[in-house]
Write a structure and sequence with these properties.
By secondary structure, this protein is of the alpha+beta class. Helix content is 35%, strand content 22%. A 5-stranded mixed sheet has the order 1-7-8-10-9, with helices on one face.
């Protein structure tokens, strides 16, 4: 080992530490592939947290994660079924049992009085999602709107009943203050987490089942990658957690990026918006929506609050999904990636990062460090997602359009589709037809013919190839009509800022 590695490892801590409710617990030599849900149910017997889908869709396993934000404890809802246990290091975990100690939380009481439960299996997860909303409402001093309640529940599915009584329960509960026992727990927990954060150590637990590490800065991260070159890098782990829970994949080493301070920055300059790779989609929402309003609409439909609060910008990109919602929009906006590795940093256009299905331009030892987006040139940016349901559904087609005009004609065009090919990529033939032309419906026949040559979509369970082709043509027509000033039907409402669930 080099001296730098030895110095780095001297700061390592071999035990995971976490607050489970008010109880600190310490765990050494744990399986890096173990989920928080399995730990809660099998080892701590906190069975109020249910396993439903085991893939982060139904919300039955919803818990609250408490973590420091600028020194203040805030809570967010998360899916325990796809959350690796090691990611809760230096954090607090609240389950439905902790809310009722010693008296029921207002959400729990309201769910009972408003008859918001039938079989009860999904109820604990709904309670935790609404408890997150309740904390946020209390902190912000406002009553949530119906849309904000619906957003809070977007990641929770109930097969027994309609959501009317549940919404009534949310309204009733949010009229009440945070209970004294919950506020006292929050204040005491904040002190503990502050003390832990101040000791300067990071988690690096080794055991027979493997290694889990959670560095706090890029120096530690580089050294851990050097020591474990085959390690799986995770941030939110919303996809990798699914591989573990559903595919039963096992990794000998996992390195968590969610605590690396340099990867959590959002920085504005006069020319660019830069977002660190570990910034969650929830934390990036305001900056992205301000840059391009359609991005806010898109992110509103991206996963669920549980997913958006956990999934990271860099992880979504590095995953390289051909049906990514975020990648087409970011490519259309001219986004660039900063990649870091053993030989330093390099910068590439986001569109060049995606090479083929499952294949991205990442050299050995490299990781996505940050995303940068030009701050202007988005006057005519639009993006639309087509899926079978409004909330947390995977796209059949996602189209993003961005043109710049000069003297009423198209000077530059960036048209990008997801779901139409093995990767998100630009429609270069269609772009060529648009350049130099006056945008409007009259362009559609030639532009649509070119678009059909740009892609050869496949048929799968989400849509047929023919449907994808027609949908892409329809989105192109919608955009050209909008560019010509013609009214177009509203596909879905404009995004309203969600209540800050990072309360």
């Amino acid at each position: 080992m080099t001296g730098l590695v030895i110095d780095c490892m001297a700061q390592a801590r071999s035990q995971l530490r976490c607050l489970l409710g008010s109880e600190p617990f310490f765990l050494a030599a744990f399986d890096p592939n173990r989920t928080l849900l399995d730990f809660l149910r099998e080892e701590r017997h906190l069975t109020g947290t249910k396993e439903g889908c085991a893939e982060g869709d139904c919300g039955a396993c919803t818990i609250l994660i408490g973590e420091l934000h600028e020194g203040v404890l805030r809570y967010r809802a998360a899916n325990a079924c796809i959350l690796p246990l090691g990611t809760v290091d230096n954090k607090q975990v609240l389950t439905v049992e902790h809310l009722a100690d010693p008296v029921p939380h207002p959400v729990q009481a309201a769910m009972a009085t408003q008859h918001g439960s039938q079989c009860g299996f999904c109820t604990p997860g709904m309670v935790m999602s609404l408890a997150s909303l309740h904390f946020a409402r209390a902190d912000e001093g406002c009553t949530p709107t119906l849309d904000q309640i619906n957003q809070a529940l977007a990641g929770n599915l109930c097969r027994c009943t309609g959501y009317g009584p549940i919404i009534d329960a949310a309204r009733a509960a949010c009229q009440q203050a945070v209970p004294a026992h919950c506020q006292a727990l929050r204040e005491k927990s904040q002190v503990v987490l502050q003390d832990w954060a101040a000791d300067g150590t990071y988690l690096c637990a080794h055991g027979a089942a493997g290694t889990f590490a959670a560095p706090t800065n890029t120096r530690e991260l580089r050294q851990l990658i050097e020591l474990h070159p085959q390690a799986r890098l995770v941030a939110g782990a919303t996809d990798v957690g699914l591989w573990i829970s559903k595919r039963h994949q096992r990794f000998a080493a996992v390195i968590h990026l969610g605590s690396v301070s340099e990867l959590q920055r959002i920085e504005h300059s006069g020319e660019t918006l830069e977002i660190g790779a570990a910034v969650t989609l929830a934390d990036a929402f305001a900056a992205l929506a301000a840059l391009a309003p359609d991005l806010g609409v898109l992110l509103r439909r991206f996963g669920s609050p549980q997913v958006r609060g956990q999934a990271s910008i860099g992880g979504n990109i590095a995953n390289g999904s051909p049906i990514s919602d975020l990648a087409p929009a970011l490519i259309a906006l001219g986004a660039r990636l900063r990649l870091a590795g053993p030989d330093g940093e390099r910068e590439i256009a986001l569109e060049d990062f995606f090479i083929d299905y499952g294949h991205q331009d990442l050299l050995p030892g490299e990781y996505v460090a940050a995303l940068s987006i030009p701050a202007d040139g988005h006057q005519h940016f639009r993006c639309w997602k087509i899926s079978k349901r409004f909330d947390q559904d995977i796209s059949a087609v996602c189209g993003a359009f961005n043109v710049q005009l000069a003297h009423g004609k198209v000077h530059e065009a960036r048209i990008v589709f997801g779901g139409m090919a093995a990767i998100s990529r630009r429609a270069t033939r269609c772009e060529a037809v648009l350049k130099g032309a006056t945008p409007g419906p009259a362009l559609l026949p030639r532009a649509a013919d070119a678009l059909a040559e740009d892609y050869a979509p496949i048929s799968d369970l989400r849509a047929s190839a023919a449907y994808r082709g027609q949908a892409a043509r329809g989105l192109l027509e919608r955009y050209l009509s909008a560019m010509a000033g013609q009214p177009v039907p509203v596909l879905y409402p404009a995004a309203t800022p969600p209540v800050n669930t990072h309360a």
